[in-house]
Amino acid sequence: MIEDKLPAEPIDSNLGTGVSISVFFPCYNEQDNIRHTVEQALAVLKKLNAEFEIIIVDDGSSDATGQIADEISKRDSRVKVVHHHPNLGYGAALQSGFKAATKKIVFYTDGDGQFDINEMPQLLPLIEQYDIVSCYRLNRQDNIIRRLNGWAWTQLACFLLNIKVRDIDCAFKLYKREIFDNIRMSSSGALIDAEILARAVRKGYSITQKGVHHYPRTAGAQTGANLRVILRAFKELFKLRSRILSGD
Fold it and tell me: pLDDT: is 18 or 120 the higher one?
């Protein structure tokens, strides 16, 4: 049974007053999700009195994701598209999104529709006090294996990289863009979230956390549980750990 999304809290347009924000979506084969995801983001951002841009990162999709993204961009100049040929991995997609962002703060969430961007404005007051808002999933809507894997990965990555977050790979995060002028990003795979947080902490940037709702995927296929993706993440963790801890 598909769980309906909870009614969103009314968006206070004053939250976005003076805010300059880039919103981006890393996507791989999300042709059935990306149009609605971007339309929802546009609706939310228009309600905020903010300067914004939306970036779609098409990570070498083999379906129509790239074409749909280009169609959206042609209709609205505030939407930009970055294409990867071929698929380069989740970390590479995030790197491209952060590098393409031009506004003062950067928000990203996945293009699969498992988060509600209506919850993003609630993060804006927090970014005034902290450099990063790293969210965690409330009632995570994945099977037990994925939930256990996610918990174990968070515990291991936090232990080895000496950071403390509840849900390291939750794809609902807000950053001050200046961070990416001052840190190196090496991971092209699933280690990317942990790498960014660990490098930012070592540069003295502050992190706060907030719970957000998580919803079942209604279309498309998940790739995060792919054995190749998991093995690549472990390989990168042990390969990059000493460099990340040393600030290299």
Answer: 120
